[in-house]
Amino acid sequence: MRILAGIQSSGRLHLGNYYGAIRQFIELQERGQALYFIANLHALTSVRDGARNRELTQDIAVSYLALGLDPARAILFRQSDVLEHSELFWILGSVVPLSDLSNAHSYKDKVARGQSPEFGLFAYPVLMAADILVYGSHLVPVGQDQRQHLELARDWATKFNLAYVPGYRPDDPEGLRGGSPGVLRLPEAHILESAAVVPGTDGQKMSKSYDNTIELFGSDKVVKKAIMGIKTDSTPVEAPKPTVDNPLYALLKLMAPPGDFARIDERWRAGGEGYGVFKKELLDLFHATFDAARARHAELHADPAAVEAVLQAGAVRARELAQQQMALVRRAVGV
Ligand code: ADP
Ligand code: TRP
């Protein structure tokens, strides 16, 4: 089984990235050939500074490794090191209906929030589909916000196969029941419902673009400030606390081991303790969960040559797989 996922290098990693995506990456690396990359070409849709792009790319690589990605099992690489992503982007683009792109949520949301509507932002889902299809990926672990992109990747793979594979039947994509197998495999999204949407400190989805994150590798001071600043309502100290639409409650539930959470939940519902007590508890949980990774992050950050070696070795392995797939694609389209 091939497992593939990427994270954009458009900012520092946060709790949403970890629980929504990276924790699943780490678990899945035991279950098949995993490929994890830093989507530094995607990041160009928001980062317009070469030095910053380089620095963030390195930071994401260090973060992946610090959190437990094992380069002996999973292939870790930079998107820009495997040119086949960009080649398939173009070839696939020739079967993508414009209306699919203009209807894509992420594009509409970003433009509604004031990002200027450039071609790169518009075409972003096509590059993402190419990232996935260029490895014949079976499984793509992502957060809920990426579900539509996976559906588009499947639709376009089907369109491609229908156009270029004689005898291809969409109801038999692997050719198990008499049809011809597709050249592009239809990927499945892997979304963990319990962490599908991790709330940020303001209660909206936690996101680099909303300035509401709790950074995994921020300084102690930055992390404390973010956690102590989680938005709460004016429920008095003695009263039971509301459990709905309360980001502090949701984050405690996400981070506490289940047995510990049952006790927190009881106290939360009983009243008698203020939000400050629970915030302090979340801060302790944060450190208990991430301090080992934070220490590894600091070590790896100080050894850029070792990280570069991992990325280059990863690129060699990834390119080999991508080239096998592209040979089939090129032959199918006649280039
Ligand atoms: P951001 O929204 O901060 O820019 P990315 O779009 O780079 O994050 O997301 C990288 C991965 O992390 C994706 O798989 C995405 O679905 C997941 N992810 C990001 N934010 C959250 C969140 N708040 N809850 C769950 N998953 C998330
Ligand atoms: N679009 C994804 C995000 O914002 C990042 C990404 C790019 C990705 N290419 C991918 C994720 C391929 C999974 C597979 O999070």
Give a summary of the structure in a few sentences.
This protein is mainly alpha-helical and 335 residues long. It is 52% helix and 7% strand. It has twelve helices and five strands.
Q: What is the topological layout?
A:
Blueprint: E1 2-8, H1 15-28, E2 33-39, H2 50-66, E3 75-78, H3 84-93, H4 98-102, H5 105-112, H6 119-133, E4 139-141, H7 147-164, E5 188-190, H8 220-228, H9 247-255, H10 258-270, H11 275-301, H12 304-333
Parallel strand pairs: 1-2, 2-3, 4-5
Helix pairs in contact: 2-11, 3-6, 3-12, 6-7, 8-11, 9-11
The structure holds adenosine-5'-diphosphate and tryptophan (TRP).
Q: Can you summarize the main beta sheet?
A: 3 strands, parallel
Dominant shape: globular
For this entry, what is the oligomeric state of its chains?
A: single chain
Q: Number of helical segments?
A: 12
Low-confidence stretches: none
Total domain count: 2
What is the CATH topology of the largest domain? Answer: Rossmann fold
The secondary structure category is mainly alpha
- Assess the beta-strand content as a share of residues: 5-15%
Query: Can you tell me the CATH architecture of the largest domain?
Result: 3-Layer(aba) Sandwich
The CATH fourth-level homologous superfamily of the largest domain: HUPs
Strand order of the largest sheet: 1-2-3
What's the pLDDT, averaged over the residues?
A: 96
Rg is 22 Å
CA distance, first residue to last residue? 29 Å
